[in-house]
Structures are given as structure tokens and as C-alpha cells.
Amino acid sequence: MLSSSMNILVIGGAGYIGSHVVKTLLQNDHSVTVYDNLSTGCRENLFAAASFIEADILDEARLRAALAPAGRPIDAVIHLAALKAAGDSMLEPERYAEHNICGTIKILNAMTAAEVRLLVFSSSAAVYGEPQYLPIDEQHPTEPTNFYGATKLEIERILAWYSRLRDLRYAALRYFNAAGYDPDGDVRGLERNPANLLPVIMEVALGRRTQLRVFGDDYDTPDGTGVRDYIHVSDLAVAHLAALEHILAHDRDLVLNLGTEHGASVREIYELARSVTGREIPVETAPRRAGDPAKLMASSKAARETLGWRPRHSDLETLVQTAWNVYAGR
Ligand code: UD1
């Protein structure tokens, strides 16, 4: 363990990525309080060793109370609570603006009021938009093609101002495609109505959906299907702690991509899923989804060099197998 034990508020800690972050923090002897409204997170993802506050980020009074508890003060916040369906964000911009932008501003203001000055923020590869070159590094232009990505970029800009004006120290982590489940099987909550590739494939494997709709098979990629950089959620989780330790030790802000630098196609993934699950997984070709680039891959050089971070579980086999273990109830 690099730093002494911290008391950390994990906002969105009952969600898919948040629960993996909580597990990593607890394993490293930090004290954790989860703050979550359970709108997409689930009770099943809560760890007994963490305290839990069921509340919404739009509720300023509850936020202020959570950030200034009667007992041990909060040392840092990890904020992962957001709406994340890129397609929905184009249909319901008001909801995305309110939750992702207003909600985060309320967190920041409650943090400054309570003099909590360390933050790790969940950002996204969606801040970049259509890639102008690959792999995408942190200097790549940021021109989001969906409103979800725009909400994340807006918050990154505000964070830079709070850093200057309020001495907030932050890490904005730009995730590529989070996938897989805790290899130890300690996180078992399934996402409800998933739209992302791997959970959809898992639901097809279980017969909960009739087929996988492959959004486009005529892209300029080796097999014609979309290529993405899939990163194991446990690798993401470790990066949150490493980022927190880094900004604490070096008193500087970080904006980092988290990906593997390797691309995998939709077809590679469903073919591998057929062999891992032993299930048929029917597919049909569907039209391209609006706003989907052909290929997205991260340069994660900065995260490697700054944090000494390396993905350990992000090979495709582990991604698919750990997801299947949970979906198949193993
Ligand atoms: C998007 C966002 C990402 C966000 C993530 C979370 C962009 C560019 N990326 O990732 O920032 O964090 O959602 O929701 O906005 N696919 C199918 N059939 C399906 C589902 C997906 O063929 O039923 C294909 C997609 O076309 C794509 C790949 O699978 O090629 C991955 O899609 P998905 O899991 O939805 O993630 P992204 O759209 O890459």
C-alpha cells in the first residue's frame, strides 16, 4: 500500500464500475462510504465492509451531510454516478444535462464547502468523438459526437477551473470500453437493460434475447464490424486508486486514457463468446448505429508512465469468461 488509509466517498459505488472500485479500495485497507440512488446500481453490489447512503446527487442537503460526516472526515471523492447511454443522451438531453452536469456541479460545490479537495472523476473516450488518428492519446482533439460525451467534457473543463480557483486536485479518467467482471466473483450485480456489447451477448447466450444485432458489417475494419478497445473493469478499478495516490503525492491534476491499445471487433467477441459459453449466440446484421466510429483504440502510454499502471485482466478470454461466470450464476 502506497498511502496511509483514506476515508473515501464513492458516489455511484453500487454501479457496475463503482462496485469494482469499492472492492479495490477495501482490499487496500481504505475506509469507504458508498453514495448511490440505486437507479442503475444495485444493492447486490454493496460490500458489507463499506457504509451506504441511499441518496441522489441532485439532493444538496444529503450531499453536504455525506461530505461532512460527524465522525472521520472524508479525504477524497470518487465520482462515477452518471447516465451513460450515448444513444439515449441524444434523445433526452435534459436528463443528461441535469444528472451528469448539474449533479456533478452539486458534488463539487459540496466538496469545496466541506474542504474536501481530492477527486477522481469518471470521464469517457466519448469526449474525443470521431478519431482523427489512432491510437487516441490525450492530446487528440475533443469533439464529442454524442451529448453523453459532451457532458463529460463539460465537467472536465469545470474541473480545470475548480483546480485553479479552489485548489481542487483531480484525475479525469477517460475510460474506453469497460467490460468483464471481478475475477474472484465478488461483484455479481447485473446491469438492467444493457445496451453495451458484452452484456447483450451474455443475455443472448442465456436465451433472454433472441439474437445479437450487429450494428454494421461493412466498416473499414478487417472483418467489417466495429473495433473497440475493451478494458477489464478490475483494471479500471486499480487505476482509480493509483490516480488518487498520484494526485495526493504529487499535488497535480491528471487527465488520462484507460484502455489497452488493442482493438477487438464485434465478430471476434461473439465468436469467442460462443466458444466460452458453449451456446449458439445467433446474430443478425443490422444497420450501423448513429454516431458509432469504425475503430476506437486508446494510447495508454500516459497512464503507464505516470501511474505505472498495466492492464492485467484485459485479454479477451478473461473479459468474456469473467462476464459469463456471473451471467451463468457460477
Ligand atoms: C459507448 C461510448 C462510451 C461509453 C459507453 C457506455 C462512444 C463513442 N462510446 O461505447 O464512451 O462509456 O458507450 O455505454 O460514445 N454493438 C453491436 N450490437 C449491440 C451493441 C453494440 O454491434 O447490441 C457494437 C457497437 O456498434 C460497437 C461495439 O459493439 O462497435 C461496442 O458498443 P458499445 O458496447 O455500445 O460501446 P460503445 O458504443 O463503443
Overview of the structural elements:
The protein is of the alpha/beta class and 330 residues long. The chain folds into two domains: 210 residues, NAD(P)-binding Rossmann-like Domain (Rossmann fold, 3-Layer(aba) Sandwich), CATH 3.40.50; 83 residues, UDP-galactose 4-epimerase, domain 1. 38% of the residues lie in helices and 17% in strands. Helix 8 packs across helix 10. The chain is globular. The mean pLDDT is 96. The structure holds uridine-diphosphate-N-acetylglucosamine. Uridine-diphosphate-N-acetylglucosamine (UD1) binds next to helix 6 and strand 8.
Would you summarize the structure shown here?
With 330 residues, the protein is α/β, with parallel strands linked by helices.
Bound molecules: uridine-diphosphate-N-acetylglucosamine
End-to-end separation in angstroms reads 31 Å
Strand order of the largest sheet: 3-2-1-4-5-6-11
Percent strand equals 15-25%
What is the name of the CATH topology of the largest domain? Rossmann fold
Determine the structural class based on helices, strands and strand pairing. alpha/beta
Number of helices: 10
CATH superfamily of the largest domain: NAD(P)-binding Rossmann-like Domain
- Please mark out the parts with pLDDT under 50 across 5 or more consecutive residues, or reply none: none
Q: Give the radius of gyration.
A: 19 Å
Helix-strand pattern, N to C? EHEEHEHHEHEEHEEEHEEHEHH
CATH class designation of the largest domain: Alpha Beta
Query: What would you say the CATH architecture of the largest domain is?
Result: 3-Layer(aba) Sandwich
Helix content: 25-40%
The domain tally reads: 2
Q: Would you tell me the overall average pLDDT?
A: 96
Number of strands: 13
Please summarize the sheet with the most strands: 7 strands, parallel
